[in-house]
Amino acid sequence: MTSGQSGGLYAALWGLVAGSALALGALVGYFAQVPTRAVAAVMAFGSGVLISTLSFELMDEAYRASGFWACALGFLFGATLYTIAGWVLARFGAKHRKRSGGLQPSEAEASGSGMAIAIGALLDGIPESIVIGLSLLKGGAVSMVAVIAIFLSNLPEGLSSAAGMKRAKRSVGYVLGVWCLIAALSGVASWVGFAAFGGVSASLVSAVTAVAAGAILAMLVDTMIPEAFNEAHNFAGIITVAGFLTSFALSKLS
User: Fold this and answer.
1) Low-confidence ranges of the chain (pLDDT < 50)
2) d(CA 47, CA 56)
3) What one-character DSSP code corresponds to residue 91?
4) What is the pTM of this model?
C-alpha cells in the first residue's frame, strides 16, 4: 500500500470516528427521554466548540498559509454555497432538521421532507469531515483537536435532530439509517479531502480549508444556535462559552 493510500485510509478512519458521534447521538436522542432543555444545552456547548475550532484551528492557519484575501474569499464562498443549498432544502421541509421540538414536519405534512432532511444533515457534515482530511495534508498528521471538536459538536447534532425526527413520527429505521449512513459518508468525505487535494499547493489547501470553515459557521448560525437559544434561553451564552473554552484549551494544551 502506498503512502498516499495509507494516508487516505487514515483520514477516512478519523472522519468515521468523528462522524460516529452523529449515530451515537441519534441513538440516544431516539430511545432516551432527554429533556429538550438538556438537548439545547449540549447543542450550545457543541456550537462553542466549533466556533473556537473555526477561529484557532482553521481560519488562523488558512490566513497564515494563503494570506488574507484568499482566506476571506474562501470563507465567504463557503458560507454562500452553504446558504444557497440550505435555502433550497428548506423549501422542501429541511429547515428545522436540527430541532428537537415539534418543528420538524412529518412526511404527511410535507411530502419529500424526509429526503430533504437527510440531504440537509449530510450537507451539514461534509465540510467538517473534509477539514479532517485537509488537516492531514497540512501537518502530516490528522489534527486531533479538529477530530475531538467535530466529535463533540456532532454528538448534540445527532441527538437533537433524532429527537425531532421521532416527534415527527419518523421510524426508527429511517432515523438510525440516516445517521449511520451520514457517519459512514463522513469517513468518505475525509478521504476525499485528503485524496482530492494531495497534489496541490499548501496555500490552495488552506484556501479550501477557509471554504469549509465558512460553510461550518453558516451551518452553526442556521441550525445549531437557534435550537440552543430557543430552548436554553438565558443559559445558552454561558454554555456556548464553556464549549469555546474547552476547544481553545485543547488547541493550546495539546
Assistant:
1) 1-2
2) 14
3) T
4) 0.84
